[in-house]
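tokens incoming
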């Protein structure tokens, strides 16, 4: 059996979106994020955090600030006994036309410990359209969370009559409850 993963957005999905986060003291978990991540793990999924951080490329977040925020996130998750299988970040600006800024797929692992990660059995979760279109680009299923910018994204999708393309959930725990068991 191939591995399956949940590719998680960070800001607005796991932690509150503070708009170009640079202060580790402002890092705060979104309610039920930990329970959601735990349940995803129990259901047999690898967990990868895939995050666009163009604030770094724009010079709005300094490298050391990014690092401090990341360390804080890792510390919080570790305290909560959540193991993340990988973190990957894009620091580019949209105009850099890189191949890793979501919804591009450059940050998505094809294998883990030499085993294939089946994208088809995987999910992306996030609060922005780029998180959902990432799923389309790898043949996974995109799940919208209504935390962070999620309500605005749902309104955007509704205006474009696309609200049925992606299921939406109040938070990571409700996403986790909806996932099939992967074994
Ligand atoms: Mg986000
Ligand atoms: Zn990039």
């Amino acid at each position: 059996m191939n591995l399956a993963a949940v590719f998680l957005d960070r800001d607005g999905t796991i932690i509150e979106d503070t708009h170009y986060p640079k202060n580790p003291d402002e890092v705060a978990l979104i309610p039920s994020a930990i329970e959601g991540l735990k349940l995803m793990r129990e259901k047999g999924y690898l967990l990868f955090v895939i995050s666009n951080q163009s604030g770094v490329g724009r010079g709005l977040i300094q490298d050391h600030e990014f690092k401090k925020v990341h360390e804080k996130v890792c510390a919080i998750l570790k305290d909560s006994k959540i193991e993340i299988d990988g973190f990957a970040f894009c620091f580019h600006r949209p105009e850099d036309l890189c191949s890793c800024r979501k919804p591009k797929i450059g940050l998505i692992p094809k294998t883990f410990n030499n085993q294939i990660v089946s994208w088809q059995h995987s999910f992306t979760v996030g609060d922005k359209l780029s998180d959902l279109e990432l799923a389309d680009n790898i043949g996974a299923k995109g799940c919208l969370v209504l935390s962070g910018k999620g309500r605005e994204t749902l309104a955007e999708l509704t205006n474009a009559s696309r609200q049925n393309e992606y299921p939406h959930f109040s938070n990571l725990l409700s996403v986790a409850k909806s996932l099939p068991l992967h074994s």
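note: The first strand starts at residue 5 and ends at 8.
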